[in-house]
Design a protein that fits this description.
single chain; 72 residues; mainly alpha; 0% strand; elongated
Length: 72
């Protein structure tokens, strides 16, 4: 029997437990990969430019909304 067939035979609460464990492991692996890749280029100026551009985008969107909806 395959592993999936064994999981299908388990009660619902055990299936949910397995799903949460798998999700936790995947989240941990993604964080480790993110830390490794992010640590390769530790450029604070580059990160600061990203946040400034995001803030500019939000400011532009809010000003456009105010122009479209003048009642606010």
């Amino acid at each position: 029997m395959s592993w999936i067939e064994n999981v299908r035979k388990k009660p619902a609460h055990e299936k949910i437990k397995i799903i949460w464990i798998v999700c936790g492991v995947v989240a941990f692996l993604l964080l480790v990969i993110w830390a490794i890749v992010g640590g390769l280029d530790n450029n604070a100026e580059k990160d600061l430019r990203l946040f400034k551009s995001l803030k500019q985008g939000v400011d532009d969107a809010s000003s456009n909304f105010k122009t479209i909806n003048p009642n606010n």
